Amino acid sequence: MEKIMQSWVKDRAAPQQVDVLLFDDFSGHCLANTVEPMRAANTLAGRQIYDWRFLTLEGGTAVSSAGMEVNAHGRLAEYGGDMLIAMPSYHYRPLATDKALRGLRAAARRYAVMAGFDAGAWLLASAGLLDGHRATIHWEELQGFTEAFPSVDAQRLRYVRDGDRVTCSGALAAFELMLDLIAERHGQALRLELAALFMSPEATGGQVIPLARSRSLVRAIDLMQANLEMPLPIGEVARRVGRSQKDLEARMKAELGAPPQAVYRRLRLIQARKLVLETTLSVAEISLRCGYEDPSAMTRAFRQEFGSTPRQMRRG
């Protein structure tokens, strides 16, 4: 089990620098869905694995479609990094000025990855940065995008990653994309924690953000999360989602990098940590609520997973 969980933790390198190029009338929803997963990933990882900056062409203030003001850290021309995300939203076509397009082309030499969120693909394509690439844009703009840029392979997808070009269709897609990027760099365990963290506690209709792409895996994880206190046998989980246990194990290992037993254990321990940090329940009560009849067994699993016992974490 320890080897499995260690295999989910991939990267101990320096923080990844992600910069967001804002324009007036940008979507505050899209910005939050881009930055908050990185902020939460830093918190859950216990270290700075992402840094981000807000940029504008001139280094001034950008005002969202809802009137929210964001003070830029500086001008686009002053910075470089791992990824630049162009984030226009409403009234984006007039933004494709000669100055903006020159700035984006120059930035492509300073950033490892160029991305366009919401209507950002339009600016990247206008700058010639998506020629020969697969890309998407907000679906309301897809037909016009296809007609305007025949050299771009436009696709009706929530997001597209094609080499060093990344595009996505809107705010919710941005959140899903960020979770996938984080998982690829830092492991599926962190993605599971992020998805659980941003789950609305009032939601009763399944995951707001799916933890897996396969419908059967999404249903399997839903069952696991609904049965943390009385864990189901993996064979029963498989039966309820219409799969054999062997097939479920193979699919989950292929998509999430770990077998169902490890994923289920991780979800139970995530819940245990939440109760340790947010309640005054005893370790014995937390153990029962997370499917452990023996508090000592839960404590051993907790320490193996998080590097400290529940009591040590609570004191810390």
UniProtKB/TrEMBL annotation:
Superkingdom in the source lineage: Bacteria
Residues covered by the HTH araC/xylS-type domain: 218-316
Pfam families reported in the protein's UniProt record: DJ-1_PfpI (PF01965), HTH_18 (PF12833)
Alphabetized UniProt keyword annotations: Transcription, Transcription regulation
GO molecular function, one term: sequence-specific DNA binding
Positions of transmembrane segments: none
The protein's name in its UniProt record: AraC family transcriptional regulator
Organism: Phaeobacter gallaeciensis
